[in-house]
């Protein structure tokens, strides 16, 4: 008991400053004797107040409790809320300082929350954390340092049991798109409707002709049966098409942007993209590849498919090897028996790097509709848009412009061989990918 008492007892800065003032008073009293009685009285008063303060803090058997509440899983790259409820069992107000043991991934050792809690009341501390890596995050104890109204001593409570939470790909972004779609406010996110060019070959039903219907869809046999009343065929958007998201896990996807790697942006975008494709009635699948490792999830439109995609994306990590497009193309050619939309999330930093993979992309484009999504280097914008004041600035701008032009040249080269390209910034990746998919659906290319 005595050992626990010493471990839980701490003294505040107010106590040490007061004690220092008394010591200085005793030193000065050596030269000014009348001050000795004043300093002695202050020392006695401080001792009595400390004893009273300790009695108030340690005199109750009911501890100051805290409970941490948060979601069972966190969303990567988003603000996740955490709440900590602290109960005051004392009959007097207390002041609480909370030292949260955050997961080591956040690299914060100075995270402190403070509040004054009235007698026998509770207080809720709320804060947000933004993880930038997928995996397990371990929260430790919430260390409470409690002081009374004297503020001389404080008691330590190791409250809130340690918790482990898993960080998954950005499902908050997924919910945001679903909610905005339900409210028909997708345009606020940048997702726009596309005008349908032509019509689908998916027959739905026959109906009477009304002004505005396409006369090319007139059904003359049905018109003859109805005694001359014009009848037209009605078509609906084709469904059950196969859409495969393919994520490159090689070292080129390790490049960071705003705390996240390009791989994390691709994973977050894939999750939203797959959900949109499932809502459109298509079958979605997933493939991730690096040098000698290829993971493949067959396409499906079942309700559990999105959960399977989420679980598969959770464990993906970048590797230091190069991506093996040849191995991937062999796998896709043997696994996919019907024409599908292949959405590649990769990154090409040079034209020569793209040309090494171009033969395999062209081979896939013979049998499938291939869309390559790669990233624009946003760091080059500041270099190319700034003013050049010295010769060195001119050289830097010229080189930066060369790299920016090479990205556009890569997109143009891919388009020559019928490969659809999307050059996007990381923050706009999801919107641009979904918009391109909706455009392809509207134009009946898939």
TrEMBL record:
Annotated transmembrane regions: 12-32, 38-60
Domain DUF58 residues, every copy: 207-359
One of the Pfam families matching this protein, by short name: DUF58
Alphabetical UniProt keywords: Membrane, Transmembrane, Transmembrane helix
InterPro entries cross-referenced by the UniProt entry: DUF58
Domain of life, source organism: Bacteria
Protein name: DUF58 domain-containing protein
Lineage: Bacteria, Pseudomonadati, Bacteroidota, Chitinophagia, Chitinophagales
């Amino acid at each position: 008991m005595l050992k626990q008492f010493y471990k839980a007892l701490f003294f505040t800065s107010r106590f040490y400053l007061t004690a220092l003032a008394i010591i200085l008073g005793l030193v000065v009293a050596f030269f000014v004797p009348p001050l000795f009685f004043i300093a002695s009285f202050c020392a006695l008063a401080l001792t009595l107040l400390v004893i009273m303060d300790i009695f108030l803090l340690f005199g109750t058997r009911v501890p100051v409790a805290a409970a941490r509440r948060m979601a069972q899983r966190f969303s990567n790259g988003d603000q996740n809320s955490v709440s900590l409820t602290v109960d005051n069992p004392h009959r007097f107000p207390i002041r609480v300082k909370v030292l949260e043991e955050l997961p080591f991934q956040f690299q914060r050792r100075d995270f402190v929350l403070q509040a004054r809690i009235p007698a026998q009341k509770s207080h809720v501390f709320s804060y947000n954390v933004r993880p930038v890596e997928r995996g397990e995050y371990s929260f430790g104890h919430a260390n409470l340092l409690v002081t009374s109204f004297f503020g001389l001593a404080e008691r330590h409570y190791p409250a809130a049991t340690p918790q482990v939470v898993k960080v998954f790909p950005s499902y908050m972004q997924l919910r945001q798109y679903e909610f905005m779609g339900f409210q028909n406010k997708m345009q606020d996110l940048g997702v726009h409707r596309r005008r349908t060019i032509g019509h689908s070959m998916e027959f739905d039903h026959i109906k009477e002709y009304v002004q505005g219907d396409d006369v090319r869809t007139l059904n003359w046999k049905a018109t003859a049966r109805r005694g001359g009343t014009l009848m037209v065929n009605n078509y609906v958007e084709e469904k059950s098409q196969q859409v495969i998201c393919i994520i490159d896990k090689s070292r080129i996807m390790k490049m960071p942007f705003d705390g996240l790697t390009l791989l994390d942006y691709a994973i977050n975008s894939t999750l939203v993209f797959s959900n949109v494709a499932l809502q459109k009635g298509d079958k979605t699948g997933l493939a991730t590849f690096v040098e000698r490792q290829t993971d493949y999830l067959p396409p499906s439109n079942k309700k559990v498919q999105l959960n399977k995609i989420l679980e598969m994306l959770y464990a993906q990590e970048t590797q230091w090897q190069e991506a093996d497009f040849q191995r991937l193309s062999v796998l896709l050619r043997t696994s996919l028996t019907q024409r599908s939309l292949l959405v590649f999330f990769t990154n090409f930093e040079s034209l020569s790097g793209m040309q090494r993979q171009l033969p395999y992309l062209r081979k896939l484009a013979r049998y499938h509709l291939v869309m390559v999504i790669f990233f624009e280097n946003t760091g080059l914008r500041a270099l190319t848009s700034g003013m050049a004041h010295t010769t060195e600035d001119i050289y830097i701008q010229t080189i930066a412009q060369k790299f920016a032009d090479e990205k556009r040249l890569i997109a143009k080269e891919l388009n020559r061989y019928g490969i659809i390209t999307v050059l996007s910034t990381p923050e706009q990746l999801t919107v641009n990918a979904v918009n391109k998919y909706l455009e392809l659906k509207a134009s009946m290319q898939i």
